[in-house]
Amino acid sequence: MTKPRPEIASTGLPPAFPNRAAWGTAKRLRAWQEAALQQYFSTVPRDFLAAATPGAGKTSFALTLAANLLSRRQIDRIIIVAPTEHLKTQWAEAAHKIGISIDPSFGTKQGRTSRDFVGIALTYAGVAMNPLGLRIRTEAFKTLVILDEVHHAGDALSW
């Protein structure tokens, strides 16, 4: 007997955000994105790795997952970790397009962000500045952590 497929809400992000999607595909997820979302929601893993080529749509996948988890109240917060300042801002802008407010100027020394934000974006170097504070922040709420270009996590042994 097969499990019923969980309903996945669409975010409307192009499947390869920030790049433009092929004509006529902007509102549809790519097959791998849909399959990965189905796999995630059928297994509900603690850790999940989405490995895809550059431009394949990892950002759109991760934000679609985040939007669905938020709407189902399975998470309360989001932490996005990226290798550069530019990428963390890009993540916040992409999230904003689908109604998820991410604070890209969060500083680990302040420890807090405005209640207007559901999440924060920071660099791996930012994580290395206060790993204990971020661990406490992550464990205090049901938190989705998105590690962009996770191979950079070992650069400073930050995450």
Automatic annotation (TrEMBL):
InterPro entries: Helicase/UvrB_N, Helicase_ATP-bd, Helicase_Restrict-Modif_Enz, P-loop_NTPase. It comes from the Bacteria. Residues 39-159 form the Helicase ATP-binding domain. PROSITE patterns: HELICASE_ATP_BIND_1. GO terms for molecular function: ATP binding; DNA binding; hydrolase activity. GO terms for cellular component: cytosol. SUPFAM superfamilies: P-loop containing nucleoside triphosphate hydrolases. This is SdrA. It comes from uncultured Propionibacteriaceae bacterium.
